[in-house]
Design goal:
The structure is a single chain. By secondary structure, the chain is α+β, with helices and mostly antiparallel strands. The protein contains one helix and four strands. Strands 2-1-3-4 form a four-stranded antiparallel β-sheet, covered by helices on one side. The longest helix is centred in the middle third of the chain and has 11 residues. The N and C termini lie far apart (43 Å).
């Protein structure tokens, strides 16, 4: 057993969704380059998983409009 990581994960630039099983608190973050790709991916996963849109990440931070 090792020590847990203490350094924050830096996310690459792109659009992100989080996919998780029903009843689960944690999910998997998935990144795509364009918003059209992320919308298609959300439609693909929405029937079998809980999908949450996280937004656009730019330089490790959430981009606001």
């Amino acid at each position: 057993m090792g020590r847990p990581a203490v350094k924050e994960v830096k996310l690459k630039s792109g659009f992100y969704i989080e996919v998780s099983s029903s009843g689960s608190q944690k999910g998997i973050k998935i990144r795509r380059e364009t918003q059209d790709q992320i919308k298609a991916l959300m439609r693909y996963y929405e029937n079998s998983y809980q999908v949450r849109y996280l937004g656009e990440i730019e330089n490790g931070k959430v981009k606001t409009k």
